[in-house]
Amino acid sequence: MADNLLDHFNVCQKYTHFHILVISRANAGKTTLLQRVCNTTEDPRIYNEGKNLWYAELAVDQRGIHDINCPFAFESNLQFIFHDSRGFESGDESQLKEVQAFIEERARSTEPKLQLHAIWLAVPSVLNFYLFCFVPNRSRPLLELEERFFNEQRAGNVITIFTKLDDLIIQVFKRGSSREQNRQSALNVLKDKFEEPLCGYKYPPKAYLHLEKMQEDEGKHQDQVKELIKKTADSLDNLALQMLFVSVQSSNLELCIEYAIKQ
Questions:
Q1: Which helix (H) or strand (E) holds 124?
Q2: How many domains does the chain have?
Q3: Which pLDDT belongs to residue 146?
Q4: Domain, as residue range, for 246
Q5: Which domain CATH number covers 120?
Q6: Among residues 199, 223, 83, which one has the least CA distance to residue 210?
């Protein structure tokens, strides 16, 4: 136990930020998701690691332009540093190579500020598939480059996030069925079209999560954020790094206490 506490102390002294790579298709609801994680409504800002200063806001017309090496964050929680990747929807193999090279480079780095700690893959649940973030669209299952991403060896664990489940529920809606029945139909589509195929690849996601109504202020978005934090923490192999990740998120103090007691 003493060794675990010492490791945790050393990690906290060494690491001041937690770096997360987010891979998503367009319109996956990524910005909303990250705002909920950081418990804010502010726009993200480009982050200058060298000077530890904010120097530019992300302009609306720049949001379709992604530089994986250009980190960003939210002023409400400066300990979370995000890296945004272009999605794979265009089929351009250079996009896959860019992501793979970034992950490999960060895995080799001995500099704390350059190391990557987690990967979120966001997929929109609107059967247009893609912390990956997928917007599930049953007419567009896994793309070729996405399949290759999960079949080729890489460092780090991936949490697959299915966003906008409410949109998928509309897609599978059947008259005469209850809201819960339609919701279950949508979950069945996620399992059949996405989760089970992903589990069959050589390097499948470490965990899956589906999100809905994240854009609604009165929704249960913080309960869903808590589940994302838990699944990400559980995917980390290093206990000290796991504790660091839980401690840097500021919106779920209950979760911090839970992990502290557990360990």
A1: strand 118-128
A2: 1
A3: 84
A4: 1-262
A5: 3.40.50.300
A6: 223
